[in-house]
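Hey, can you fold this one?
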Amino acid sequence: MTKKNKEALMLCLNFGALISVGFILTSYIFFQKGTSIIINPQLSNVNYMLCISGIFIEIRKLRSDVLPTISYWQAFLSGLVTISIAAIPFAIYTFFILSSNTDIIENAILIMEKGLNESGYSEEQNSLFIEIYKTFASPAFMAFSQFLNKILMGAFFSFVLASFLSTKKNLSMSNNSANFDNKDNNKEQ
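Sure. Predicted structure:
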């Protein structure tokens, strides 16, 4: 492994740990306030902001300190590795908090029932959805779903941010435009 790869991996590890601490702290704060930590749009918005800002700063730092010319795929993969590292401790935290507090899952089921009743589905459809949700509503499944949720969220934001933060451009296009400009200059002379 080259020195630059080691530096890039350490940067991903550091930012992944910081993002994970942010996820865990905000979730714990919402839990202490007595609000739902499974189905909560406010917590989701905070997590989106943590993810976006963490990946943005990590790719910018990677570009400025380690790889001055960073391709789109390098930027995308560094963001994806960072959020994958952040998702692991958060999934473990989710498993332990749901295992020790079974009422969190029960509250999530109540919130889902209320939302389904307000959505206009028939009673049969509502009961079917709730039964399916109850069969999968275990701490292990919820932790795994949070893990996948964070990775998919991070992949999406990495995909978008990498397009803005990459520095390598298509050289064939820039060379062709430079040749085109030279042909125009030669015609004028």
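The chain has one domain: 3-168. Let me know if you want another pass with a different chain boundary.
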